[in-house]
Amino acid sequence: MKTAVSIPDEVFAQADKLARRAGVSRSQIFSAALREYVARHAPEDVTEAMDRIADELAASEADFAVAAARRLLIRGEW
């Protein structure tokens, strides 16, 4: 979507310099910046993302714990 916004000249110059250095368009720079800003100011989205990561880590830790316990049981004397 195209839109027109007013930004300070210094911010525009910094974004333009960053875009040239990164080899991307100014639109991509502004989109990424706005996406990051929105993400930081939408706590429910941040919480949801952190919950997903915690669930993934818990699953991998559980898999590790089961595998470690299995190795100990196989090696141990009964």
Structural features, described:
With 78 residues, the protein is mainly alpha-helical. It is 79% helix and 0% strand. The chain has helices spanning 9-22, 26-40, 43-75. α1 packs across α2.
Shape: elongated
| Percent of residues in helices | over 70%
Overall SS class: mainly alpha
Mean pLDDT: 83
Strand share of the residues? under 5%
In DSSP terms, counting alpha (H) and pi (I) runs of 4 or more, how many helices?
3
Cα radius of gyration in angstroms: 23 Å
- One letter per element, helices H and strands E, the order comes to HHH
Low-confidence stretches: none
Number of strand segments: 0
Question: Biggest sheet, open or closed, and with what strands and sense?
Answer: none
Number of domains: 2
Cα separation of the termini? 68 Å
Describe what is shown at a glance:
This protein is mainly α and 78 residues long. It has helices at residues 9-22, 26-40, 43-75.
Structural features:
2 domains, single chain, 78 residues
Task: Summarize the SSE layout with pairings.
Blueprint: H1 9-22, H2 26-40, H3 43-75
